[in-house]
Amino acid sequence: MVRIGYTMMTEQTGPRELVGDVMAAEEAGFDFSVTSDHYFPWLAEQGHAPYAWAVLGAAAQATSRIGLMTYVTCPTTRYHPAVVAQKAATVQILAEGRFRLGLGSGENLNEHVVGGGWPAAPVRLEMLEESVRIIRQLLEGRTLNHRGTHFDVENARLWDLPETPVPVGVAVSGPDSCAVAGAHADLVIATEAKSSLLEAFDRHGGAGKPRVGQLPVCYDRDRDAAVARAHEQFRWSVGGWKVNAELPGPAAFAQATGHVRPEDVASAIPCGQDVGEFVAAVRAYTDAGFTEIALVQVGGEHQRSFIEWARTALLPALREL
To answer: Is 277 considered catalytic here?
Structure first.
């Protein structure tokens, strides 16, 4: 049976509301949750970007069953990998074994803030692979001295390790990232329903491991209102990651998506309240081989109505997949 998750989308909701929303999602029956980790929203209309790790700590204490996960953290520029390992170990202790660490190569949107420049894509992937190696060794309890191509670690050790090891996931978008994920990750993460990504992950050692996808949706009783909201806040999502990863801020995303029409967004994001349309969008992921799908409800102020609708209508239908 496919596992259905709820997304704490930090770009569209403040920190206190995020915690309340994940509590409601747990009560409604979602199997797990994921949390974005941004310094900026993609578009100014979204309006938020709290610190994801503080939200995770609060969510760990406010919930008791639902899984928690970063989707995803970039451990290369804004955060040093040794610090990410410490964050992950601490959240796993607070969550009593319910946390998974999702990692990715990042976006200029968030990483430029520390002033280190934005590396080319092949370099970012090298940095990610080295980071994953560092993080995994520290989470295993090793005292680590590391002199690498991109990172140095000096006599580092995590003094508070969880009883339950932290599963590490890696986000993929092409063959090279699939190779990194297959070799080093406990699960794979993607935002596109492409079976080719999972096949490449399997070829490099990922066979039998969980594969987690993410799907934006926009529930509203008024479909036209849902389409308008999805266009206002999520039109960035119809662009390719090769472009999105390079854009430096919300103004750049607004300019890059000026040509995107509401109907373009509606063709990519289920909008309204037709359960069948939402189920079909999720089925595209399950047919591709994904075992878990995290839903993103567009619009921060519309989370509770979506969660209640999911509890009564959507989740029961998805359980039949």
So the answer is: no
DSSP code, position 311: I
> pLDDT digits over 61-80, tens only?
999 999 999 999 999 999 99
The active-site residue, picked from 11, 26, 38, 129, is 38
Domains of the chain: 3-318 (3.20.20.30)
Contact (Cβ atoms closer than 8 angstroms) between residue 283 and residue 321: yes
* CB environment 223-254: b (16+ within 10 A), e (fewer): beebbbbbbebbbbbbeebeebbebbbbebbb
Interval 210-220 mean pLDDT: 98
Contact of 298 with 234, CB cutoff 8 Å: yes
Angle at 34 between CA 319 and CA 310, to 5 degrees: 35
- Are 52 and 10 within 8 A, CB to CB? yes
48 catalytic per annotation: no
User: Pick the catalytic residue: 107, 111, 130, 292?
Assistant: 107
